[in-house]
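Class prep. Write one:
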Amino acid sequence: MKPGRRVEGRAGAPPAAAAPRRAPWLERLLPLALAAVTVWGSLGGPFIWDDVPNIPGNPHIRRLGWDALAGTSRPLTQLTFALNHALGGLDVRGYHAVNLAVHVLAALALYALARRTFAAAALRPRFGSAAPWLAVALAACWAVHPLQTEAVTYIVQRAESLAGLLYLLVLLALARGAESRRPHCWHAAAVGCCALGMAVKPVMATAPLLALLYDRAFLAGSFRAALARRRGLYAALAATVLVLPVVLAAGRHDWDVSTGFGMAGLTPGRYALTQLAVVAHYLRLALWPSPLILDYAWPTARGPGDVMPGGLVTVALLALTAFGLARNRVAGFLGAWAFVILAPTSSFVPIADAAFEHRMYLPLAAVVALVVAGAWRIAAGRRGAAIAAVLAALVLVGALARVTARRNRDYASAVAIWSDTIARHPHNPRPYVQLGTALAAAGREDEAIRSFETALRLKPDYGAALGNLTHARDAQGRLTLEQAIRDYDEALRLDPGLQWTRYDLGLALIRAARPGEAAARFSEALAREPGFAAAHYGLGVALALQGRVDEGRRELERALQLDPGNADALRALAGLDSERGAPGR
């Protein structure tokens, strides 16, 4: 036996996939170009919703270093935001450009994986001759599908697309390793990508299992053969899951109020029941992507009747997937691809928000693959099938790209995306608060107040709506100072996590000449969020008004360290330094 030659498995095992011919550049570039062109129009869209606390309101991204990895359960995602900030500050175009680049690379990785998979021994008799172009069709449809807009255009969902890219690279490295005479480099790449993915989003925890299922379906032919050939790889992939407890512990506050078995009124059973309808909804959007909604506020199911008929569809698909996996069928693997990747968010672990479209970023590939492969199987062997297939693919990609481009226009402004969300889901109070905030930022205060009032009519105990409404009315002088303080207090009673409302209350207490109470409120805010620059400013003012000038100066300096552009803190410090007395707002 020559040095470096591998002995693969046992007699009778299916051979590993032969390396497909080198793809023409057109095949490689087409899905990338389509992905880039389709989402190009979204590059100027503003920060919205969770973007705000995670990017402009996040002190950890303002300098590179260990601090950029702190205080979050997604440290690698946060590091990419820190890199964006270091290169372009808060210029939103840079953040969108990185999201676009991640999506384009993911499309290329999906193309490369699909090309090898269609040419694998298990599929070569049926698809081998058309493998490159089937891969192009799959990657192009996936890249331009409207269901991808939330994961790509909504900046903070970079976590989803980046995790998807690393997930695909794990599988691609596995496939490349099976072709290589020196697979260890590819296996090391797979393990490295898997470990990095754990620091991007917990969905990566399912990658080792899906890699084993892929190996069994397309490379080794059985679990026994897969483990015999690549036992060390799977042990290392499984070990990467140990990264998760570390990163989750570092960002525990991310999950305390939104995820876990202790969530009030949301048991594992009710959440799992709810997900039966949610998964069926995702499948419908994959096949007919309309309407797309940024914030569903999906209601929790109380019984089986609440999830019919979608729940029956999901149960049937789960049964078909189990049957297909038992017989090692390709369709079974595609079903497992979707269900396994969705499992962290669509199983029995309660999450405050039951449905978000970005969760279908990678599972969508299974649906598209099934449609593309099924269409080819129907057309194969018929006269003119190749021309018809190309025309059909072009029409489909063009239609998807047009809808995606239209959807991206909704993200062009915060007012536009929240107005669209309200139009499609008018009984959800949360979009009214977001729309009101966007209207206030645009100087449309009266419209903002009406939007906050609508949110309160829909949900009278909605603390965020009351806090924002009080701020808007207070700014217009529509409330007495004592009424504003009472309303801020009530909003905090309803939702103690409203940091900006706590800050507003502190400022109102300063205006009411109650600096001691104001200092207590600002201290509460900082106990919850030590990097809250505005609260350091408020505490500095409150302390200075009590005659504790040195302590106040330290707080103001801390505010400027966290937010160098804080004009209020600069003015307050200037007031102290010029000995003009204690500063006010």
